[in-house]
Amino acid sequence: MKELGHGADVNNIASIYNIDPKNIIDFSSNINPNVIPNLDKYVIEGLKECRSYPDISYMNLRKNISEYINVNKDFIIPGNGATEIIYLLMKSINKRLAILNPTFSEYKRAAILNNLEVIDLQLNKENNFEVNIELIKENIDSFDSLFICNPNNPNGKVKYLQELLNVIKQNNKLLIVDETFMEFVENEEDYSLIKYINQYENLFIIKAVTKFFGLPGLRLGYAVTSNKNLIEKIYNYKEPWTINSFADNLSNYIFKDSEYIKTSKNYYVKERSYMIKALKGINNLKVYDTDTNFILLELTNKKSKQLKDELLKDKNILIRDASNFIGLDERFIRVAIKSHEENEILIKQMKVALGD
Amino acid sequence: MKELGHGADVNNIASIYNIDPKNIIDFSSNINPNVIPNLDKYVIEGLKECRSYPDISYMNLRKNISEYINVNKDFIIPGNGATEIIYLLMKSINKRLAILNPTFSEYKRAAILNNLEVIDLQLNKENNFEVNIELIKENIDSFDSLFICNPNNPNGKVKYLQELLNVIKQNNKLLIVDETFMEFVENEEDYSLIKYINQYENLFIIKAVTKFFGLPGLRLGYAVTSNKNLIEKIYNYKEPWTINSFADNLSNYIFKDSEYIKTSKNYYVKERSYMIKALKGINNLKVYDTDTNFILLELTNKKSKQLKDELLKDKNILIRDASNFIGLDERFIRVAIKSHEENEILIKQMKVALGD
Questions:
Q1: pLDDT attached to residue B178
Q2: Which residues of A touch B246 (CB under 8 A)?
Q3: Same domain, A176 and A50
Q4: Domain-embedded: residue B3
Q5: CATH number of the domain enclosing A251
Q6: CA–CA separation, A344 and A339 (whole Å)
Q7: Are the beta carbons of B56 and A241 separated by less than 8 Å?
Q8: What is the pLDDT of residue A27?
Q9: How confident is the model at residue A4 (pLDDT cuts 50, 70, 90)?
Q10: How far is A351 from chain B (nearest CA, A)?
Q11: ipTM of the complex
Q12: CB-defined contacts A:B, below 8 A
């Protein structure tokens, strides 16, 4: 089987490179290394729930999310990861979708599979891929909906979007914001658009448990919107029971663990600062500034594929070759911010590989 | 929220009827009451896997299923329950789909949501809803694919389908068989079409862990077909990571637990016989013969809605009002075969409610 071009393809890559997947340090997927306490206990409780079907209307799950983000539970649509939400949304919106690139490839894949017309807007490398509101204004008549990842994957920068939200509203368009990585941002509350959900019906936000709570295998994401028309369309397409009982049950605990949430946030403020500084100390490497838990890097003396191969074969380190993002090229890689010990290993080996 | 017309809607119904869901004995969903040993241990192991993304190509999961049903792993497509498989299939087949009714309503819902033309073929109450091959032959030019549930939900009868498979093949059509309940059947190997998978490319079988392994909250089903064209189409539409890490990990154990499998099969042979006999002893009730873990019943002196209300309000027993199946009417109910103790309670209370 060929490589799939996503991060998080460890087993497949391990088999291609003939490495035991257990030995790989995976910097290609952006997962919080901190662990929620007492998960074992919760999971045994979840197992009991597994003996019956999950509640088809996920009332308890929606209530837990509702309390976590302080939004009416009827404005929350739970999904099998953010992925289910993205695919349902693409079935439910109008034909012309603008996407700000470079960004996560599943938006476009889901849009095309659902016969949407995709308008690829391109952010500027020279401007560090910063969200360009002028570019959006210039193209406003070309789309019905605009998809933004904030902070953006792969470059990790967050952006104030209040002005954009108003522009989009004034033009009767829909703003879709993937805030999957928002919880990693310092002063999250300043940047997250969740607080505008009641007021703006033209806003659709995607969030997930995957990254910040460090549980990608659990498969739990959710949509937040007060747009009743869109909610109805999505439920029309939604398949029953897509969220498993472990996820349903764990929602009773993880969202309420304020200690875990605080510790993780503090960890990322500190570790981000360490990583950026350390990476900037490496020759032949351009470091893009980040507000989240991964970092975009540009190589000046080597191709990304080559560095990936070297780090994997010699050091069991898996980085994300980011050359397949629209608008990036064969010089780009992305690395996650993992535990401090793992980050140190990465820094050390990158120094060796890039010729310091 | 209104009742959803499926079984397995316990929490919602409990809230409508103002009953603690924990007190309800749920005969509306068809789940094996026997429990696989050591699940706690497996689930703690699965939790560790949850810290990374599931393998996007589910190699290990497909290998485990492959060994369980003795089919090439490349012919297996794992899904988030049988439901994901049904919805993917509807995106991937030709326009005209015949469905044998009465049967599980999600087939038709999924077909219509994907703009298929549904041809509803009707099985005959007078013939105990037995699969009618003549009816299919008469209508063979009206469809591209035929969907059969075997044994069928809601009536529970299994049918030899070899002859039908040949008829369908000779006419260049696709036969889709939902074998979700096949493992409950005595002499399963005589009835299951799995053994024809290599030989017949016009065959598509749906199976799941949900019912027989008693884990509906786990969300694990799978498709089996040697039709490479169909496999390719389905993967084209398939969303990534739809199966959670607990399900992926549990596949290492549940399919290999031959003791659990044997004990469950024996239990159902015995308990089915007891239940049918006991129900036949109740007045004002027609019992349809079954080969699986649920029984279709027809009331002669009461409407199904009324009996459902009475059993729920007075006795905390939830039965499936089967009046919304196409071709059934307000006299039909369906009950699961549960533990012997629970079955005895049902029999006793049905006797009271139906006026013995």
A1: 98
A2: 43, 217, 244, 246
A3: yes
A4: no
A5: 3.40.640.10
A6: 9
A7: no
A8: 96
A9: low
A10: 27
A11: 0.93
A12: 166
